[in-house]
Specification:
Elements: E1 7-8, E2 12-14, E3 20-22, E4 30-31, E5 42-45, E6 48-51, E7 56-57, E8 59-64, E9 78-83, H1 97-100, E10 110-111, H2 114-124, E11 128-131, H3 140-153, E12 156-161, H4 167-174, E13 179-183, H5 189-196, H6 201-213, E14 217-224, H7 232-245, E15 252-256, H8 271-283, E16 289-292, H9 297-300, E17 302-303, E18 310-315, E19 318-322, E20 353-355, H10 357-360
Parallel strand pairs: 9-11, 11-12, 12-13, 13-14, 14-15, 15-16
Antiparallel strand pairs: 1-6, 2-3, 3-4, 5-6, 7-10, 8-9, 8-20, 17-18, 18-19
């Protein structure tokens, strides 16, 4: 299996005018020799598509799974996280812009094969591996090979993604993933066009496919940006769509924006906006709604939809109390909580432990 930077790419075809078209995502980049796609990491080399970042990472860390954020996927467990460089969206509010917007391959300082990553996760006790920091859609071949290697080691895999992916690639990519957190960045096409350089419809298509076409557990995250996507009307519309198309059991994380990248002129999201938006989403029928990037014990806690008792009490990424059975039922009334659960052996906590993969492998 190749671990070189330039790895054969999938999901492309030749055009009659001599260009090749990348079919990985809805951008449909059409490339002449030597050109790169909008993501910057997929390029034409000769008469084929290559992924230029295969086997190279911006760094590896062990995180709590709650940081992804995932609250219903082996709560309290640790997750080996890594990303590469580039992105197929152009979000002006990107919180990881130094990685996702990077045009310097020198930022990819750590190299590791899929097998080495899987072995490192097993050795460090990580329950899963997360493809994160930048969108794994653009390094899908690397992520999918790593997912295969992790499965052989009994390690789960998680995609933290904006869900902006083409139909064929979507099917093959998510077939490899055990879980995903999908950024539903807003609920109007205008927001996606003006602030993300993309469109809303393909993301909604991905979410519907995840629900009805896969066994992949997934949760949603919406970063609430003051004056851009945080109106009560938009939260209501989004929540109604989620309940109608995905069902009431898909967890929704409403997280606080902080000024960054090209949107430093805005203020951070007030905690009151998160509380109000959570109440709206709960009122529209979503059973598990969380607030993020703030200290809010109520907004971080998993409550039983049957008896309303607190089951997993959190403050930010810390678990303070755990009241689920090994198979994810409420200890008080027996109601099954949606997600993926196993015997709870204590929480990893809010630590972030960087590791050098080439040294660890």
């Amino acid at each position: 299996m190749s671990t070189s930077a330039n790895h054969p790419g999938r999901w492309w075809h030749r055009l009659d005018d001599g260009r090749i078209q990348c079919d990985l995502c809805p951008r449909d980049c059409r490339l002449h020799e030597g050109q790169r796609g909008a993501c910057f990491v997929r390029a034409r080399e000769g008469d084929a598509m290559v992924l230029t970042t295969y086997g190279r990472s911006s760094g590896f860390c062990i995180d709590p799974v709650e940081k992804k954020p995932l609250n219903h996927f082996y709560p309290g467990s640790s997750i080996l996280s890594f990303g590469t460089a580039g992105c197929n969206l152009a979000c002006k509010f990107c919180q990881n812009w130094d990685i996702s917007k990077s045009r310097e391959m020198d930022t990819l300082m750590d190299a590791a094969s899929p097998d080495a990553i899987a072995r490192a996760a097993k050795r460090t006790g990580a329950r899963s591996v997360a493809f994160t920091y930048n969108d794994p859609v653009i390094f899908a071949e690397y992520a999918m090979d790593t997912a295969d290697a992790c499965r052989e080691q009994g390690v789960a895999t998680v995609a933290v993604t904006a869900g902006y992916i083409g139909t064929e690639a979507r099917r093959e990519f998510f077939a490899k993933m055990d879980a995903a957190n999908v950024d539903l960045k807003g609920f109007t096409d205008e927001f996606y066009v003006k602030l993300c350089g993309a469109h809303l419809a393909p993301v909604l298509d991905t979410l519907v496919y995840l629900k009805h076409g896969t066994n992949c557990w997934f949760e949603l995250t919406t970063l609430l940006i003051p004056g851009k996507n945080d109106s009560p009307a938009e939260i209501e519309a989004m929540s109604r769509w989620i309940v109608r198309e995905l069902g009431p059991d898909v967890p929704l994380h409403l997280t606080a924006f902080h000024p960054d990248y090209k949107m430093t002129d805005l203020t951070a999201t007030p905690p009151a906006t998160l509380v109000r938006s959570r109440e709206i989403a709960l009122g529209e029928g979503i059973r598990h709604v969380y607030t993020g990037n703030v200290h809010d014990r109520t907004g971080g806690t998993t409550f039983c939809p049957g008896c309303a008792k607190p089951l997993v009490v959190r403050d930010w990424h810390e678990i303070l109390d755990y009241g689920l059975t090994d198979d994810g039922n409420c200890r008080h009334c027996g109601t099954a909580i949606p997600g993926r659960f196993e015997r709870y052996q204590g929480a990893f906590g809010s630590r972030r432990i960087p590791i050098r993969m080439n040294a660890a492998a």
